[in-house]
Amino acid sequence: MIINFILNGEEVNYDAYPGETLFELLRRYHHYEVKGNNCKSGECGACTILVDDKPIPSCTYLVGKVIGKKVITIKGIGDIDNPDLIQKSFVEEGAIQCGYCIPGIIISVENLIRKNPNPTKEEIKETLSSHICRCTGYVQQIEAVEKVVQKIKEGK
Amino acid sequence: MLKNVKECFYPETVEECLKLLNEFKEKGDIVGGGVDIVWRERKELEYLVYLDKLNLNYIKEDQKILIGATTTLDELEKINILNGSFKNAIKSVATPILRNVMTIGGTLVRGYSWSDILTIFITLEGKVKIYDGEEKILSIDDFLQYKKTSKKKFILTEIQLPKYDISYHFSYIRFTRTGSDIPLLNEGILIKSLGKKVDRINIILGGRPGFPVHLNKVEEILLDKELNDEIINFAKEVAINTSEVLDDMRLSQHYRKNLSGVLTKRNLIKIMEEI
Question: Is A24 on the interface with B (CB under 8 A)?
């Protein structure tokens, strides 16, 4: 089946299998567009992307649901040459070790800060609760998000 | 990947949707959020029927609170009733990103016995509207029975909650190993107070394992009483002695029995402080 949607600001048309997930489709067409597919049940959060401004686990999202929607992957946030504020902050605060979970976390944090530029520590923790990170213990990640919030406050 | 799926359908009316389900039989199923259907990877599935064009994504407040079947759980967090307890109960389910895709209709139709949503909505005396050729409004208990006994295909279109005035108090606790795991036991309590006394009470225990049930004995001893530390401790003991819980590979019956007492006590203390 042919499906069309907006991927990182560009209209795309893909030939999709009717029973595949958005994760599988993006992996076929853009090999590194999404990471993960660890759990295939939405529990680990590694494959999180934004669909119509909501972070969702792409491994449980069937392609039939994405038609006409707006999708943003980690590449739509920033890349190694042009990282966004959150990505920079995660690097500076040492919030990344193996990096497996980080794209999903960046997407969720991006969504949090877009909707609430001044989140509490509890709200940051709640956002991170969608993601399993076995390296960092989350402490540096919380600090990295707090630093982003501080920078936004200072208008940097 | 659901490897055997051949085609997706987007009906525009419930009648059209039901016709498709009857035509496909076990080869077709409805996609709500899709989480369960992807996870289970049923080999027999060849046709997916999406509800996206039925306009069932809504929350309306009239004489009742009406929730469309494809409303996602994160949208339910916006319903500010029962002093914020309903919102907190919904927020305790799964993780934020999963709540963004899980639909209320899909969760109730799957009706897993350990489901938090099932326990919450039975406690709150929720009802469901289904269409199986004719429209029916059923309590959640009757709906579970209907699912078990009826061979008809149906579509769940709406969930209804009563409107609660300030005399209603609600508390819900789930006990799990991790936040995103399925509950090992969950309990919801709804109390209508008259002054300081308990005028009406629902205590529902779920994830026993088995479908949620009332803790009848505990309800009986609390009815028409004023909540205080003494009666709450007594209720805890009664819950431990009378709760119908079982063993499974995750938790022993003995542990679950004691846990039912602890959850009952914690829920009652929270409501006592509110009253």
Answer: yes
Given an 8 Å threshold on Cβ–Cβ distance, is A19 in contact with B34?
A: no
For strand A70-72 and strand B28-31, is the pairing parallel, antiparallel, or unpaired?
unpaired
Q: Please say whether the dihedral angle defined by the alpha carbons of residues B30, A72, A131 and B95, taken in this order, is positive or negative.
A: negative
Tokens describing residue B254:
């003995």
Q: Measured between beta carbons, which residues in chain B are less than 8 angstroms from residue A71?
A: none
Q: What is the pLDDT of residues B203-262, one digit of tens each?
A: 999 998 889 999 999 999 999 999 999 999 999 999 999 999 999 998 999 999 999 999
Contact B119, B206 (CB under 8 A): yes
Length of chain B, please?
275
DSSP string, chain A: -EEEEEETTEEEEEE--TT-BHHHHHHHHSTTSS---SSSSSSS-TTEEEETTEEEEGGG-BGGG-TT-EEE-GGGT--SSS--HHHHHHHHTT--SS-SSHHHHHHHHHHHHHH-SS--HHHHHHHHTT---SSS-SHHHHHHHHHHHHHHHTT-
For residue B7, what is the nearest residue in chain A, using CA coordinates?
Answer: A18
Contacts of B91 in chain A (CB under 8 A): 126
Which strands make up the sheet holding B213-214, listed edge to edge? B168-175, B185-194, B197-206, B213-214
pTM above 0.90, yes or no: yes
Phi, psi angle pair for B127, to nearest 5°:
-130, 160
Q: ipTM of this model?
A: 0.94
**Which residue shows structure tokens 């063993």?**
B247
The rounded distance, in Å, linking the Cα atoms of B134 and B29 is: 19
Indicate the SS3 state at residue B187: strand
| Contact indicator for B47, B153 with CB cutoff of 8 Å | no
